[in-house]
Specification:
Elements: H1 2-13, H2 23-34, H3 40-47, H4 53-90, H5 107-121, E1 125-126, E2 132-134, H6 135-138, E3 158-160, E4 163-165, H7 171-179, E5 184-193, E6 205-215, H8 220-234, E7 241-248, E8 251-260, E9 277-286, H9 288-293, E10 302-308, H10 310-318, H11 331-334
Parallel strand pairs: 1-5
Antiparallel strand pairs: 2-4, 3-4, 5-6, 6-10, 7-8, 8-9, 9-10
Length: about 350
């Protein structure tokens, strides 16, 4: 036991060599002291089990503590030598710095903000509402019949009894009509949810922007004028638009609005399904039943509403052929449209 303790004391004195060792000497010291086969401390630890039980604890404790001290000293010295090596030659201070990634607003967010700004200049106020809505606000108050297919669980996401993830931002129209008397002129952005396939032109969750105008004497002419002005402001001043008859439960008459495809310029491509046109929104005059459901006098007031998908509008404007690119977080794609957040 006395021989082992003397050997441990001699090894402890060698700790002072570690901070001064160069890289080669450090490797030699580590092998000489902690090496698995020939290390001095390894031999001492191997001899501990042969001692008397009363001596085993004393020698083993000192040996293990000394081993930890050496391991800590070696690790610290290795870090110092590595830092010195980098400072001395591995780092080329003449190389140009790498540009750091700069965050910015997503392209769809930019489009939403720009659309809302255009309508703000046309006198609209931005309104918002919850994404989980009652069936009443999402369907029935908007004149959906109780047997409409949109109420089926295969088309909509239900999160509770009578509660659904909104399938459009139209419930905010109901909330606005019930909270404020006419005249009303609001634009409503937000995310909506539908059980759609995830393909080049559809997504189960997407942005939508709706607009609502209710006042005395509002006509379909006002609707066409406002939406045509928006399209020519957002795309180009010579953008061609067209309105096609359609059907929505909450508007009558109803119309789809198309713009000339900005990708193929009307010649036909997969994005516009070879038609040369791209549908960007649905619209129509607010159904009198919707006004009556919200306590608004439908004999005195009329209005129009519209809804659009910013993703599809962004695809049309910037020539994006697949809506899934907006969700893949590919910096190579997103950085093309990066605009710093202000």
């Amino acid at each position: 036991m006395s021989d082992l303790l003397a050997a441990l004391n001699a090894l402890r004195e060698r700790l002072t060599e570690v901070p001064q060792a160069d890289e080669r000497r450090l490797r030699e010291l580590k092998t000489e002291i902690l090496g698995r086969k020939a290390g001095a401390l390894t031999h001492i630890l191997a001899a501990v089990p042969s001692l008397e039980p009363k001596d085993r604890k004393a020698v083993g404790g000192v040996a293990n503590a000394l081993k930890r001290d050496f391991e800590t000293a070696f690790a610290a010295r290795e870090r110092e030598l590595k830092r010195a090596s980098v400072a001395a030659g591995d780092l080329d201070l003449t190389m140009p710095g790498r540009a750091g990634w700069q965050g910015g607003l997503h392209l769809v967010t930019q489009v939403v903000d720009e659309i809302c700004e255009i309508f703000r200049e046309l006198g609209f106020t931005r309104a918002v509402g919850p994404e989980a809505e009652s069936e009443r606000n999402n369907f029935y108050a908007l004149n959906f019949p109780h047997d409409h297919p949109a109420l089926d669980a295969q088309d909509s996401f239900y999160v509770g009894d009578g509660v659904v993830l909104r399938t459009h931002t139209s419930p905010v129209q109901i909330r606005t009509l019930e909270a404020y008397p006419p005249p009303i002129r609001v634009v409503i952005p937000g995310q909506v949810y539908r059980r759609d396939p995830f393909d080049p032109s559809h997504s189960p969750v997407f942005e939508q922007i709706e607009g609502l105008v209710v006042d005395e004497g509002v006509t379909f002419v006002d609707l066409k004028a406002a939406l045509t002005a928006f399209a020519r402001r957002f795309f180009t001043s010579d953008t061609t638009v067209r309105f096609r008859p359609s059907y929505f439960p909450f508007t009558e008459p109803s119309a789809e609005m198309d713009v000339r495809c900005q990708i193929c310029k009307g010649s036909g491509c997969p994005t516009c399904k070879q038609s040369g046109w791209m549908e960007i929104l649905g619209s129509g005059m607010v159904h009198p039943a919707v006004l009556d459901n919200c306590g608004v006098d439908s004999e005195r007031y009329t209005g129009y509403a519209f809804g659009m998908g910013p993703e599809r509008i962004a695809m049309n404007r910037y020539g994006v052929s697949d809506i899934r690119l907006f969700w893949e977080d590919d910096v190579r794609f997103l950085s093309q449209f990066a605009r710093p957040h202000r």
